Structures are given as structure tokens and as C-alpha cells.
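Thread amino acids onto this structure.
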């Protein structure tokens, strides 16, 4: 569900001798190999899928810092998702709000994929213990949909868009797709209001950039080249934000050099200027169940956007910095509520996809 864009100002590797350069390039891995691995990960769902195939589609959901903070368990007629707290981001997400929203995103993918292959069912929130989502399913008539078809193509596209407006009909389609009980979604396309959102994003980003612990946590989840991204199967891969690949030893140093509050603020201002609009998701209650529901609504919105040829990216600073939430809630006409997710959208490029961990590593015995 979180959107950190690595701004690398270096356009090429440092000058190296021939042998050293060759070794470095080998260690960084091949963009072609990475692309083939992402294509295999997003392969078409089999007509008669196993549980692991459905879970593979679930894991293609949006999630904070691409931490993939979920564990799946399988029983007859049931697939459950529960939080994996070993993959928390306690600085940017101290109460695990984004973690639970990420579970909601994955659960929505799971339900859509299962329904498309004749296993319809219901997503149920179980608040016992750490909280989990249970998908109880049974054989039904297959229900393919544009949202299901969009699952392998959806991505958080952290790039400048082309500024084109979205038609009223498509805006209505987005709003309809994002309808989830307990969640209000507010669309902002008016430029003065978008400028107010931009100001909140910049204020939030400035506050986060001033926190060394925030920078340390973000840096730990950055992946600077294809080899590193494939090796870990998680994190924020630099090329997925349009940045050059760098060797493991150079990436962190380049990050320290160019990752400044001014550069990031300028980047977010440009990205929001180029966006057609912003969607803000607000739960009717501030609890784990509604955080998950907000994730479901957000995922549905992003999938419908993908089906319409749109791109999306998170600009969640105004919900991550607690002091900015009241102003954002007032801006969207829901004072006193906690905004959950902020998502910009528009027409933009397709970038390399983010990695995912092997399905086998996230399934536990029921």
C-alpha cells in the first residue's frame, strides 16, 4: 500500500576498469532475466487452479514498501490470510494500519481470482488474536471480470503522468468498483483541491525526511539492481520507479547523496501536477477490520483503473503523519474521521514490475 520512490541522480556506474566493470555487471544481474521472472510470476491463472495458484494472484496486490506482510494457510474450502509481523515497518506504520490494509488488498485479489475459476465465496474478518481474513469458498459458476483480468497488470506506477483528464464515465466506473461496505471513497479532480492535497503531501514528506529513523527504515527496503530484487523477492526495486540499476555497494551511497527533502518534494509536486486526480479512502471506523476494508476498496479501484488504461501510485504522507490527518479529513468533507489511503491516478507509462516472494515461502499449515 506505500510508495517510496528512489531518486538516483547518477546516470551510470562509476568509471571502473574492464574486469571490475564486468564483474560488477554480472553481480547486478540482468534486466532481461528479471523481466522473464516477473512475467512467469504473472502468468495466466490455470483453468483448474490449485490453492497456490490462487495465492500467487493474491500476492500481486499492492502492499506497503512491498514488504508482503502476509501468511496464508489452507484448509478444505477455506484460505486464510494473517499478518506477518516480522515484516512490519514500525516507523512509517507504527500501529500496523498499512499492514492490515495490505492484507485487505491481497484478500480482494484472492476472492476475484477464485470467483473467476469457479470458487466463489465470502471474505470474513476474524478479530480474534492478531486478526485475520478468512475466504470461505465453494464451487460456483465462474465469474470472470475486468478486475480479475487486471490483476497481473496492476502496478504502483511512481512516475510522471501525462496530465490528461479522466472522463466522467470512467470516474463513475472507478467509484462503483471501489464500493466496499464501511468505506467512503472521495475523488478529487478539481485543481485547487489537488493543490491542497499536494501541499499536505509535501508537508508530510518534509516531516518524514527530517526523521533519521524513517530514512533508515526506508533504505532497508530498497533494492538497487535486478539480482538484489530477485534474491530477496521483496522491497522497492529502483527500476520500478524509473531509476537506473546500481551495484549493491554503490546504491546505498548514491541514495545518501541524492535523497533530499527538496528533491523529493519537487518530485511529488511534479507527479501530482501531472495526475488526473486523487482518490482518498476513509473508513467509517478506525479499527483493523476497516483498515482491511479500505485495502479491499483501494485494490478494487486500482484494478478498475488498470482495466481502463490508467496508472496509480500511493501518496500516503498525509495519512502517515498523524498531525496532518485532520486537515485531510476536512478537505474530503469527512471531519473527525481517520483517512486510510491516498492514491493518485492518471495516464502514464508502464514500468518494471515489483518482485514477489515464492508462494511456498508464505504458506503455513492450517
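Threaded sequence (366 positions):
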Amino acid at each position: 500500500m506505500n510508495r517510496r520512490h528512489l531518486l538516483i541522480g547518477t546516470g551510470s556506474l562509476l568509471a571502473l576498469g574492464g574486469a571490475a566493470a564486468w564483474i560488477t555487471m554480472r553481480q547486478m544481474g540482468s534486466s532481461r532475466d528479471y523481466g522473464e521472472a516477473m512475467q512467469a510470476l504473472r502468468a495466466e491463472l490455470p483453468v483448474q487452479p490449485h490453492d497456490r495458484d490462487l495465492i500467487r494472484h493474491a500476492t500481486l496486490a499492492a502492499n506497503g514498501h512491498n514488504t508482503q506482510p502476509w501468511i496464508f494457510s489452507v484448509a478444505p474450502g477455506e484460505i486464510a490470510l494473517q499478518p506477518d509481523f516480522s515484516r512490519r515497518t514500525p516507523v512509517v506504520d507504527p500501529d500496523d494500519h498499512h499492514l492490515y490494509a495490505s492484507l485487505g488488498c491481497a484478500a480482494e485479489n484472492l476472492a476475484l481470482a477464485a470467483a473467476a475459476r469457479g470458487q466463489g465465496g465470502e471474505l470474513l474478518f476474524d478479530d480474534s488474536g492478531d486478526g485475520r481474513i478468512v475466504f470461505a469458498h465453494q464451487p460456483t459458476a465462474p465469474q470472470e471480470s475486468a478486475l480479475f483480468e487486471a490483476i497481473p497488470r496492476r502496478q504502483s506506477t511512481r512516475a510522471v503522468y501525462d496530465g490528461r483528464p479522466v472522463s466522467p464515465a470512467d470516474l463513475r466506473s472507478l467509484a462503483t468498483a471501489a464500493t466496499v461496505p464501511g468505506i467512503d471513497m472521495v475523488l478529487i479532480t478539481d485543481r485547487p483541491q489537488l493543490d491542497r492535497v499536494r501541499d499536505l503531501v509535501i508537508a508530510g514528506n518534509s516531516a518524514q525526511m527530517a526523521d533519521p529513523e524513517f530514512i533508515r527504515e526506508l533504505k532497508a527496503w530498497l533494492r538497487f539492481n535486478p539480482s538484489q530484487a530477485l534474491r530477496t523477492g521483496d522491497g522497492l526495486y529502483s527500476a520500478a520507479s524509473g531509476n537506473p540499476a546500481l551495484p549493491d555497494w554503490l546504491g546505498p551511497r548514491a541514495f545518501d547523496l541524492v535523497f533530499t527533502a527538496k528533491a523529493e518534494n519537487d518530485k511529488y509536486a511534479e507527479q501530482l501536477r501531472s495526475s488526473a486526480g486523487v482518490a482518498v479512502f476513509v473508513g467509517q471506523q478506525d479499527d483493523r477490520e476497516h483498515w482491511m476494508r479500505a485495502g479491499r476498496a483501494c485494490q478494487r479501484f486500482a484494478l478498475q483503473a488498470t482495466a481502463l488504461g490508467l496508472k496509480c501510485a500511493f501518496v500516503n504522507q498525509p495519512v502517515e503523519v498523524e498531525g496532518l490527518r485532520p486537515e485531510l479529513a476536512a478537505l474530503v468533507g469527512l471531519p473527525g474521521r481517520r483517512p486510510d489511503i491516498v492514491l493518485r491516478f492518471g495516464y502514464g507509462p508502464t514500468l518494471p514490475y515489483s518482485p514477489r516472494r515464492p508462494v511456498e515461502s508464505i504458506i503455513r499449515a492450517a
